[in-house]
Amino acid sequence: MADWPALERELDAWGEAGRTATLWWRDDDGEMPGPALDRLLALSDRYEVPLALAVVPAGAGRALAGRLEACTRVCVLTHGLAHRNLASDGQRKSEFGPERPIHELLADVATGWNRLRLLFVAQALPIFVPPWNRMAPALLPRLPNAGLKGLSAFGVRTAAEPVPGLAQNNCHLDLIDWRAGRGFVGEAAALEVLVTHLAGRRQGLVDADEASGLMSHHLVHDRAAWRFLERLLEATQRHAAAYWLSATEAFRLAP
């Protein structure tokens, strides 16, 4: 398991190679303003780190739009439609799984994106984040038909542009251990994931151009998760070889 000095050494290795370790930050399940969201936004401001908030279109409204309006470092991604589990019994949770007809999946994607781009006019980006980070493979080539230009799931991507006109940049570190009480995954485990991905990129073992993605879930953070998140932002912001990309940069969208 890794520790903070291991992260420092890995970033030093990037710097010694004359390279910059790019990272990006996605927080999932945004719907309503509240104390947890306020705390998240405060961290983004304090450390001047861009934040991509994956918002559930069916649950979002003018209250959230008003809260984010002045947050210049925050962009909004489309997180499914209602974040409902529509999978068949015994199947892994999904809202956009293969059990549903493809025309229904595409219609829901388009409905969610259209709602967000009207609510968050200046902040909405055409990037799809499937709930539970999974979706039917048949939906992938059709996402551009719904106006989407980006896809973000979880794990090392297989292609920077899996279909023409669609960029992909995933998250790689999830702060939450969903199988063990929905608490923080642990400092050593989290750092191990991040350091391993950074080292893999530097050594050419995985896609070096895919920014290392941090995935947070502000609504379920415990004290340890908040503490780790703050320390990570602080440690990376003070290192010359680390750089936090905005989602616009990570997905190479036109400003």
Which descriptors would you attach to this protein?
TIM Barrel; 11 strands; globular; 255 residues; single chain
Can you walk me through this structure?
The protein is of the alpha/beta class. The protein has a single domain (4-250), classed as Glycoside hydrolase/deacetylase (TIM Barrel, Alpha-Beta Barrel). It contains 7 helices and 11 strands. Strands 1, 2, 3, 4, 5, 6, 7, 10 and 11 form a 9-stranded parallel beta sheet that branches. Strands 8-9 form a two-stranded antiparallel sheet. The termini are far apart. The model has no long low-confidence stretch (mean pLDDT 97).
Task: List strands and helices in order, with pairings.
Layout: H1 4-16, E1 21-30, H2 35-47, E2 51-55, H3 62-68, E3 74-78, H4 102-119, E4 124-128, E5 150-151, E6 167-168, E7 173-174, E8 176-177, E9 183-184, H5 187-202, E10 212-216, H6 223-237, E11 242-244, H7 247-250
Parallel strand pairs: 1-2, 1-10, 1-11, 2-3, 3-4, 4-5, 5-6, 7-10
Antiparallel strand pairs: 8-9
Helix pairs in contact: 1-5
